């Protein structure tokens, strides 16, 4: 008998009709001889509704009480799904965070799971029951409800898979897997059958909103096989596991993009030690996330130009901080928020020579100017003019054999 | 320092604006030096919404899971009200049923409260905190959530007042008290300042939907002073306590009516021992509640006519059962569902001679025919034609000095 954790996101349980459909998925998985723990999100939109109510009272609503409020959403789904299973004559039971219990570090609205008691649920599974567990929540050692941050239902599922020693953790959602690029933009995008944790993390951070990054990190840390699949089709999804288990026939796994970046260049910065720290320390203190940084020698050899990217929403705050900062001298600030970040991701890149060169050549062939470059072990990102995004993705998707 | 239980019903907490208003009421009560425990209902309409969801899945939704589902409603109100109080700089905290805990007999959807742990909350009150508690729920000895039936928030409030030894239990609702009759129908209806538990029970059972009867019964049993008052005005409400504490200057406290009854007459029933039992036993087994029963001698001395009233919704079921019942012989069934029950209620009736006579005379003066009569210690009810209801109430309200 195989123990499986199945996690169902907000859209998968968005209506009672969908909840009944989820009940049928669980019924089928159990009839195949699996022991099932299901982790559920709040019905789509419900958490936002509850947040809205709290904001009507206070923008800085007390965090302990916000957790009491928000945790009710998953409780509703738990009750409905258990009831739907029982109606199908499947033995099922909801287990709320305090009934298990799921113990957290007590940090309200952003808790981390420390431990989960497994005895009672394991016994229940042994007797043929399906356990339904609310995602996104636990209790502190003082018995207060603590939620574990937005998207925390994925984290709950992975933590449960780890602690219950499940053989797999399946994330049911409204897309049927991870794609080689955005299928809404590039129709030849292909679903990826297998992907490594690292690649998934890079793709997630680049805008592929399939799974919560922190949950993927946890899965990677404990080597828990994941599968992202659609609640609404029978098709296989994308399996996510450690790199060693994947045969890479292709150097590049996927092409991602994001249009949330802006590029800022400081022209004529004094070229002396410590200048970069002087620029970026106050930005970091202001919670501004600096992504790429490029430093060039300037024409006059005594000054340099520094280019970096931040989120578009942070541009005006960034400029304010730079202007107020008396520790740095520069001649001019140039900004450009009409840029896009396009990345190729692939664990096979390390062992394939020439990937970098091929990317640059391909973009150049299309007449696309590269404004900034950043690389990692399994990722290569460039900043280009926003208008060129689609052309760049199409070209890269083709030349790296992803069509 | 006086300990008070304040209970806020669904319409009182129906929006975040109203919840903030409730927070101000609590703030004021606390600033007067009172220790406050607030018991809250789900926001108006929410429980019905949740029931509707469950019915979309199954008309006979599993009761354990229904309780998990429904209890989320009061949890939401608890979080929002505590947050609203904290925003007013009032020290406040929500205490969910399992955090207290409130222990019940475990009967899902219809539990009875057995015990409430008071130590932690008493300590919290001693330190100046306001405790916010969800009505309508508790946990079984196995740690399952159990709700205590619709309207159970009143019952929770009274049980908490009893167990915490509170000096009073105030029921905040959308009406400003108990009236001498329906103020929507009879504009001269007056708010009653003081009323006994018994009178309140009679008025409740006769259609004055101000408070849950079982909660009044519990308050009566343990002699807990109640006050029903409006959340939306500053006016005093109606105090409810034991009869000994009330000086009755009037024989009649109020006039009530209900239009939910139907009258059934069996003509020519064989007049022998056991016949009434033969008629009413099968009705009782079918959960049909028979209210008044009148038996007259028939003209031929060998048979009798039996008249009784049931709820209108039960008429056709009642007739079916009577017709199938071979144990009783009768000549004819007559039914009339265009009748109303009008009652006068007053603890002062016992000690005032002639109340019965005055009621019958008054109705006769108005040309109203009495179809059936039933009496108790503190109540006198008659069945009349429905069209005469308003005329009857007006007349009785006047002649018993209630205008």
Topology at a glance:
2 copies of one chain form a homodimer.
Chain A: E1 3-8, H1 16-31, E2 35-40, H2 46-57, H3 63-87, E3 92-94, E4 102-104, E5 113-116, H4 119-126, E6 130-134, E7 137-139, E8 145-147, H5 152-163, E9 168-173, E10 194-196, H6 197-205, H7 213-222, E11 226-230, E12 238-241, E13 254-258, E14 261-270, H8 275-285, E15 293-297, E16 303-311, H9 315-324, E17 332-336, E18 339-345, H10 355-365, E19 372-376, E20 379-385, H11 389-399
Parallel strand pairs in A: 1-2, 1-9, 2-6, 3-6, 9-11, 10-12
Antiparallel strand pairs in A: 4-5, 7-8, 11-12, 13-18, 14-16, 14-17, 15-16, 18-20, 19-20
How would you characterize the overall build of this protein?
The structure is a homodimer of 403-residue chains. By secondary structure, chain A is of the alpha/beta class. Chain A has a domain at 3-174: Carbamate kinase (3-Layer(aba) Sandwich), CATH 3.40.1160. The first copy, chain A, has eleven helices and 20 strands. In chain A, a hairpin with a 2-residue loop joins strand 19 (372-376) and strand 20. The longest helix of chain A has 25 residues, at 63-87. The mean pLDDT of chain A is 91. Chains A and B meet through helix 1, helix 2 and helix 3 of A and helix 1, helix 2 and helix 3 of B.
């Amino acid at each position: 008998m195989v123990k499986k954790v199945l996690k169902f996101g907000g859209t998968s349980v968005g209506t009672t009709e969908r909840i009944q459909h989820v009940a049928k998925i669980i019924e089928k998985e159990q009839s195949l001889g699996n022991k099932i723990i299901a982790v559920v999100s709040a019905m789509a939109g419900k958490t936002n509704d509850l947040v809205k109510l709290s904001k009507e009272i206070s923008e800085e609503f007390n965090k302990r009480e916000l957790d009491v409020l928000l945790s009710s959403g998953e409780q509703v789904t738990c009750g409905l799904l258990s009831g739907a299973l029982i109606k199908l004559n499947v033995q099922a039971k909801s287990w709320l965070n305090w009934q298990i219990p799921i113990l957290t570090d007590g940090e309200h609205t952003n808790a981390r799971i420390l431990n989960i008691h497994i005895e009672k649920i394991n016994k229940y599974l042994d007797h043929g029951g399906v356990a339904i567990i609310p995602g996104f929540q636990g209790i502190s050692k003082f018995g207060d409800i603590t939620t574990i941050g937005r998207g925390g239902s994925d984290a709950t599922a992975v933590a449960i898979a780890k602690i219950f020693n499940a053989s797999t953790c399946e994330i049911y959602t409204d897309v049927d897997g991870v794609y080689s690029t955005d299928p809404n933009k590039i129709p030849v995008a292909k679903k990826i059958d297998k992907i490594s944790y690292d690649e998934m993390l890079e793709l997630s951070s680049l805008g592929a909103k399939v799974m919560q990054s922190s949950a993927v990190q946890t899965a990677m840390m404990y080597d828990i096989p994941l599968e992202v699949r659609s609640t609404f089709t029978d098709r296989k999804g994308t399996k996510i596991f450690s790199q060693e288990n994947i045969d890479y026939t292709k150097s590049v796994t996927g092409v991602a993009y994001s249009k949330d970046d802006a590029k800022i260049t400081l022209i004529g910065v004094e070229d002396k030690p410590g200048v970069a720290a002087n620029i970026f320390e106050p930005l970091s203190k202001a919670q501004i996330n600096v992504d790429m940084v490029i430093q060039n020698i300037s024409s006059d050899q005594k000054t340099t130009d520094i280019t970096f990217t931040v989120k578009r929403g942070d541009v005006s705050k960034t400029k304010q901080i730079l202007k107020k900062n008396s520790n740095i001298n520069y001649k001019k600030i140039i900004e450009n928020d009409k840029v896009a970040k396009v990345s190729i991701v692939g664990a096979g890149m390390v062992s394939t020579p020439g990937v970098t060169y091929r990317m640059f050549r391909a973009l150049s062939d299309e007449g696309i100017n590269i404004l900034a470059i950043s690389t990692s072990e399994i990722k290569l990102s460039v900043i280009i003019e926003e208008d060129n995004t689609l052309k760049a993705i199409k070209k890269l998707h083709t030349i790296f054999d992803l069509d």
